[in-house]
Amino acid sequence: MSVATKYELKLGAATREAFGRALAEVARENPNIVGCDADLSKSTMMTYFAKEFPARFFECGIAEANMVAVGAGLAMAGKIPFVSSFSCFVMNKGFEQLRTDVAYPGANVKVVGTHSGISIGEDGPSQMSIEDLALAGALPGFTVISPADEVATKAAVKWAAAHFGGVFIRTGRAKVPVIYSADAKIEIGKANQLLPGTDVTLVAHGMMVAESIRAAEALDSEGISARVLDLHTIKPLDEEALAQAARETGALVVAEEHLVDCGLGVRVAQAIARHAPVPMEFIGLETYAESGTPEGVPIKYGLTSAHIVAAAKKAIARKTK
């Protein structure tokens, strides 16, 4: 089984921390890897790379759009640039350059957004990125990844370094539970089934994977069998795994720390509509959040296992109508 433990989830490193360490690791093997940051390397954790490879690190200052353009230029010169900042800054401020300088010419740029979602807590809504997956997914040719833990993040960084093309990796500020064992197989573009189930499928990415596992445990105590899929790759989507889950369980719930109007749920619904239409429910955000603790904000805005449980019961109830 690829899950570190069936139900007991222990806290591990933040995915931003895992990114920083993984980048330094792959850079030791490939001298063409370079890093660009926008005056936040101590927060994005690109500081590990900067300290070890100062000649390959480009500090672009508080100028995210320019940083993306610099990264594109480095890619055109044969380098493999990883550009990083908070997701809300690199995606929102840098989107025009991502569109024109990276996606349009097909530049080999890797974008890593940290402090994603609302779980950054006290930093407040101006720095909470809840549109980043929609923006990244709108870029033709981009691979979009939202890892659930440190193991999955390391796998994503390693894959991105070897892959030619635009990549967006979404990481978070807070420490998250360990989902995968160190030797787990994580294949970009392929969903991971973490728990089997026959009554409903819980689909999630990022921090909501752990909440979905907790929800599956709660549902199991009520005699409801819930399958859990970690859809760490938002684009390209594993439509085969989704179609199989829909046919075998007959109902789906998609849970994400992102706007429901334009996130993973929309992509899953498109896939399900093509292959195996079933009742679906969606857990996510419909508004900007407010400042609060990293623990309290997700509770207020419905990003918990209890909300997933309620949504699962709604979806199951619709199966009989």
What does this structure look like?
Mean pLDDT is 95; it is low at 1-5. The protein has 321 residues and is an alpha/beta fold. The protein has helices at 15-29, 41-44, 47-52, 64-76, 87-93, 95-103, 132-137, 150-162, 208-220, 239-249, 264-275, 296-300, 305-319, and strands at residues 11-14, 33-37, 57-59, 80-86, 110-114, 143-145, 167-170, 175-177, 192-195, 200-204, 226-230, 233-235, 252-259, 280-285. The protein folds into 2 domains: 13-177, Rossmann fold (3-Layer(aba) Sandwich); 192-319, Rossmann fold (3-Layer(aba) Sandwich), CATH 3.40.50. Helix 1 (15-29) packs parallel to helix 8 (150-162).
The helical percent reads 40-55%
Strand order of the largest sheet: 3-2-4-5-7-6-12
Relevant CATH superfamily of the largest domain: Thiamin diphosphate (ThDP)-binding fold, Pyr/PP domains
Mean pLDDT: 95
**CATH topological fold name of the largest domain:** Rossmann fold
SS-derived structural category: alpha/beta
Globally, the shape reads globular
- Poorly predicted regions: 1-5
Domains (count): 2
Question: What's the helix-strand series?
Answer: EHEHHEHEHHEHEHEEEEHEEHEHEHH
Percent in strands: 15-25%
- What distance separates the N and C termini? 35 Å
Q: Which CATH architecture of the largest domain?
A: 3-Layer(aba) Sandwich
CA-based gyration radius: 19 Å
- Helix tally equals 13
Q: Tell me the major beta sheet.
A: 7 strands, mixed
Number of beta strands: 14
* CATH class division of the largest domain: Alpha Beta
